[in-house]
Amino acid sequence: MPKSSMLRAADVRAIVKLVNECRDLGDDWWAWHRHCIGGLLELTDSELGLAGEGAVRNEEIGMISPPAMLGRPGFEADPSRILEVIHEYTLVPGASRFVSNYFARWREEDGVALTNRDLFGDREWHASVDMQTVGQAYGTDATILCCREIARAGAGSGELEDITLFREMGRRAYTERETTIVHETCAAITSLMGGPLARFREPSPADLPPRARQVLACFLEGDSDKQVARRLGISAHTVNQYAKRIFAHFGVQSRTELLARWIRRGWTHRPPDDLRGRE
Fold it and tell me: Known Gene3D superfamilies for this protein (predicted)?
């Protein structure tokens, strides 16, 4: 890593602190996203930040979630206008050269964080439709974009977290160090999404096969593996295999973690009701 892009010890501590604070808010998608954006605004001296979940499939880029957005105090921007631009411009295939150029690089290096200067010369950037449309709507100039696949979504899923930061028009360009802060923060949070950090679309019992839902219902009622096996007429080994599938589905490592997350995130107010094979 070039010296200019190396993080300071204080940067590393700040990133770890921010990620841990996000974990404390992890059951609320909006809360932890807004906190993450707020932390990055401070760490990178930015005025405006957007973050959310998207997907890249068949060369097309789409959004899974609406964007969480936060501006620093004193930065005047019309949120409704910003969201209008996002929906009407940046997600139109090929409309944004910044996005198109970024994803050409992203396909070679997942998680790369790039600024407008990495993708355009200054004259080209200021003459671009991106700057004329998005920059004018936001009142911004310098931009960082970082997208990284969400690890727990599975390899090749195309599901990713998108973080975009902006500086007010007329301010300085981003440094390599600031770009690296965004890169490292995005890497840390995407490794936790679907586990300690809630996804926008949380896993549902309905996505499990019927037998796995029955095993899940028994777990939620406090049954041991032997009790589940007896109730459902299957072997303890089979129960263990279903348990692994259930834990992976909900992004947990144990029954204790499953029960705690089930309650905190309010996935449902009662166990699945399709239990069969009771004694």
Answer: Winged helix-like DNA-binding domain superfamily/Winged helix DNA-binding domain
Terminal Cα-to-Cα distance of the chain (whole angstroms): 63
Token duo for residue 267? 């996935």
What is the C-alpha radius of gyration for the chain, rounded to an integer number of angstroms?
A: 22
Classify residue 15 by burial, with Cβ atoms within 10 Å: 0-12, 13-18, 19+.
buried
Six-digit token string for 165: 């930061």
Q: How many CA atoms lie within 13 A of 247 on its CB side?
A: 12
Structure tokens at 163: 């973080």
Residue 83 lies in a domain: yes
Same domain for 181 and 214, yes or no, is no
Residue 276 CB partners (closer than 8 Å, separation 6+) = 214, 232
For the chain, which ranges sit under pLDDT 70?
1-5, 58-60, 77-81, 86-95, 155, 267-279
Looking at the domain assignment, is residue 95 inside a domain? yes
Q: Using an 8 Å Cβ cutoff, are 82 and 49 in contact?
A: no
CATH code (residue 219)? 1.10.10.10
- The C-alpha atoms of residue 43 and residue 37 are separated, in whole angstroms, by 10
pLDDT for 4: 43
Whole-model pTM: value is: 0.79
Cβ atoms within 10 A of the Cβ of 91, count? 16
pLDDT of residue 91: 58
Structure tokens at 79: 């949120």
Phi, psi (deg, nearest 5) at residue 221: -95, 5
Q: What is the pLDDT of residue 59?
A: 61
- Please report how many Cα atoms fall inside a 13 Å half-sphere around the Cα of residue 97, on the Cβ side: 16
Kindly give the residue spans of alpha helices, DSSP state H, lying in 202-235: 210-220, 225-232
In a domain, 197, yes or no: no
